[in-house]
C-alpha cells in the first residue's frame, strides 16, 4: 500500500508540473549514478528553458529538430525558474539539462559545461550590441556618444551579476562596480557635456546579464552626465520594437548574430546598430560536469 501511495504521489507531481523543479519526475534517487538509464530517461526527456520569446529557445527548438530528438520537450519558463531548477538538481547531484548562455553567474557558482554542438545549430561565439533609435544622435548627442563608447568584458559583467545574485539591488551592484572601475567610466564620458534634466528611456530583458549592463549604463548616464533614465523591463520582442518605434531610446542588450537575429532582421531599417559592447558570449545546452555526456548527439542514445 505504501508503495502504491508513493507512486500515485509521484504521478500527481508530474501532472502539476513539479518536474521542472525536480529536473525529472520518476528519475532514480541515486545522485549522478544513473545505472543503465539513458540520459533522456534520467531527465524525463526534458530540457529546462527560459521565456518562450527568447532567441535561445528558438535555437533550442531547431536543435531538437536537427538532432532528431523528437521525444524531447523544451520546457518554457523564465531565467529565474531555470536557475532554480538547476540549483535544486545540482545540490542533489541529479542530472539536468538547461538552456544556457555566457556571461551568466551560474558558471561562477556551479561547475558546468556546454554540450558540444557538432551541427553548429547554436552558432559560434556571439556579441552583445548597443542599439539605439533613429534620431538619437541629433537629439541627445552626449547620450549617443556615451552609448557608442560603452564597452566592457565578460569578467566585468560577471562581477555585477554575482553581487545581484547574492542579494544586492542592481543599482547598488552597478554603483559598486563603477566605484572600482572609475577609469572605464571616465573614458565613456570623456569631454561630454552635462545634460541636467533631460530624460532617456532604456529597455532591457530581465536576464541577469542585461540587468547588469543596463543598470551600469543608467548609473553612468545619471551620475556622470545628469540624465534622468527610465528603465523599461520587457520581453525581447517588445524591447526591439520599442527602439524601432521610438518608445525607447536604446538598449545595450542585443545578442547577435544568433540569439536576436530575427528581431534584427525585422527592425534593422528602423534602428541604428552601434556595434558590440561585449565580446565572447555563447549560447547552448548546459549540464553539470558530473554528468557523463559531452555532446548534444549523446541525447539520442537509448542506453
TrEMBL record:
SUPFAM superfamilies the record matches: Periplasmic binding protein-like II (SSF53850)
Subcellular location: Cell membrane
Keyword annotations: Cell membrane, Membrane, Transport
Pfam families: OpuAC
Domain of life: Bacteria
GO biological process: choline transport; glycine betaine transport
Alphabetical list of InterPro entries matching this protein: ABC_Gly_betaine_transp_sub-bd
UniProt entry tagged with the keyword Transport: yes
The keyword Membrane appears for this protein: yes
GO-annotated cellular components: ATP-binding cassette (ABC) transporter complex
GO molecular function, one term: amine transmembrane transporter activity
Protein name, entry field: Glycine/betaine ABC transporter
Organism: Paenibacillus naphthalenovorans
Amino acid at each position: 500500500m505504501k508503495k502504491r501511495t508513493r507512486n500515485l504521489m509521484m504521478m500527481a507531481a508530474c501532472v502539476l508540473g513539479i518536474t521542472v523543479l525536480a529536473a525529472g519526475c520518476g528519475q532514480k534517487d541515486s545522485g549522478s549514478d544513473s545505472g543503465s538509464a539513458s540520459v533522456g530517461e534520467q531527465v524525463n526527456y526534458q530540457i529546462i528553458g527560459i521565456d518562450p520569446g527568447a532567441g535561445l529557445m528558438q535555437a533550442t527548438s531547431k536543435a531538437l529538430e536537427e538532432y532528431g530528438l523528437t521525444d524531447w520537450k523544451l520546457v518554457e519558463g523564465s531565467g529565474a525558474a531555470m536557475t532554480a531548477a538547476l540549483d535544486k538538481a545540482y545540490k542533489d547531484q541529479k542530472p539536468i539539462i538547461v538552456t544556457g548562455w555566457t556571461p551568466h553567474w551560474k558558471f561562477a557558482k556551479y561547475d558546468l559545461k556546454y554540450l558540444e554542438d557538432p551541427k553548429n545549430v547554436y552558432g559560434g561565439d556571439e556579441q552583445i550590441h548597443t542599439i539605439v533609435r533613429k534620431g538619437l544622435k541629433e537629439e541627445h548627442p552626449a547620450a549617443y556618444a556615451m552609448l557608442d563608447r560603452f564597452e566592457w568584458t565578460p569578467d566585468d559583467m560577471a562581477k555585477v551579476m554575482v553581487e545581484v545574485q547574492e542579494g544586492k539591488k542592481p543599482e547598488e551592484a552597478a554603483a559598486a562596480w563603477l566605484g572600482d572601475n572609475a577609469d572605464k567610466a571616465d573614458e565613456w564620458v570623456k569631454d561630454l557635456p552635462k545634460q541636467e534634466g533631460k530624460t532617456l528611456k532604456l529597455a532591457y530583458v530581465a536576464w541577469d546579464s542585461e540587468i547588469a549592463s543596463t543598470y551600469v549604463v543608467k548609473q553612468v548616464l545619471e551620475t556622470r552626465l545628469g540624465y534622468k533614465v527610465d528603465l523599461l523591463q520587457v520581453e525581447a520582442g517588445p524591447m526591439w520594437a520599442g527602439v524601432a518605434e521610438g518608445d525607447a531610446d536604446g538598449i545595450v542588450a542585443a545578442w547577435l548574430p544568433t540569439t536576436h537575429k530575427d528581431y534584427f532582421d525585422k527592425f534593422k531599417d528602423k534602428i541604428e546598430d552601434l556595434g558590440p559592447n561585449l565580446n565572447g558570449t555563447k549560447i547552448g545546452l548546459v549540464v553539470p560536469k558530473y554528468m557523463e555526456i559531452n555532446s548534444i548527439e549523446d541525447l539520442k542514445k537509448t542506453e
